[in-house]
Amino acid sequence: MMAPVISRFVAPALVPLVALALLPAPALAEEGGAAKDGKAKAAELVPVGEPVSCIMPSQLRSTRVIDDQTIDFEMNNGTVYRNRLSHRCPGLKMEERFAYKISTSQLCSVDIITVLQSFGGGLSQGASCGLGTFQKMEKPGQKMEKPGK
Length: 149
Known about the structure:
Blueprint: E1 5-6, H1 17-20, H2 25-28, H3 34-43, E2 46-47, E3 54-55, E4 60-67, E5 70-75, E6 80-84, H4 92-95, E7 98-100, E8 107-108, E9 112-119, E10 122-130, E11 134-138
Antiparallel strand pairs: 1-7, 2-11, 3-8, 4-5, 5-6, 6-11, 7-9, 9-10
């Protein structure tokens, strides 16, 4: 089984969750103030094509929690995949951080995320929730350029 990973700063977490509190603040902090305008940015995107079951965590640049049921996963190439969880995940939006474990080299719709809650100067495990499929998202009118064109 592979190690759990913390969102927004993909890092192995083989140590107890209490030790995760020792990570530098930027490792767990929201990048670029996206928490304030997450819903606005999310509204700018439209679904493209059919959803996929899995993404490659090794290609993951960042995540943005939109609400208790929606997470955007931004890949290194700029592609955004939106995951709508099968059910609301209590505390996800408020904490805006989560961990996941993968059993293969991919993060898939059958995998579970666990909300990481601030507690007593450290982190504790919150709700665990199942992922949904990953829907590719783009800005309206945006077209992915093909190599050589």
